[in-house]
Amino acid sequence: MTLTFEMDPAVDRALRDEVLALWADVSNAGGSVGFVPPVTPDEIRPALLKHLVAMVGGEMRLLVGRDEEGGVAATAFFAFNAHPLMRHWVWLYTVMVHPRHQGRGYGLDLMAAVERAARTSEGFEGIEAVRLSCRGGTGLDGFYAKAGYAEVGRVPRAIRVAPGDDRDDIVMLLPLT
Asked: What is the pTM of this model?
C-alpha cells in the first residue's frame, strides 16, 4: 500500500476532525509536533485553527496523505514568508505520519511529496528552498537528512519539553535549485 497525496484539499468538518485526530495521535505517541503527551484534541484545536485561518489567508497550504481507505494518514503544512526578503523559501510545519503507518516508509514518501509540491505546484513559483525545524534528541534530524535536508542551524536547549528536559531546536533546509 502507498499513500495518495493531495495538495490543498477542500477543508470541511470531516477533514478538520481527521487532521485533529491525527495530530493528537501523533502527539500522544511521542511525536514532536508541538505538544507533549498526554494531550487531547481539544487542546490541539486552537493550533489547528490557526493553521486553517492562515490557509484561508493564503499564508499556508496543506498537503495530505491518505491511506487505502481514504483516511488522513499524513500531513505537512507549508507556510509562506510575508517578509519581502524571504519570499524565496517556505517553512514546513506539522509534518506527521499516523503511528499505525510508521515504519513503512511513508515518512519518506511524505517528504518526497513535499518536495514535488514545492517544485511543481501552482503558487510555489520562485520558491528555492524548504526550511523546517525539529526537536533534538528524537532522531528527526537523521530522518530529514535521509530526505535530502541539511542541518543549517541549531539553538541549544531552545525547546523545553518538561522541567529539566531541554532540547535543541535544529533548523534543516532542502534547496530546490
From this structure: 0.97
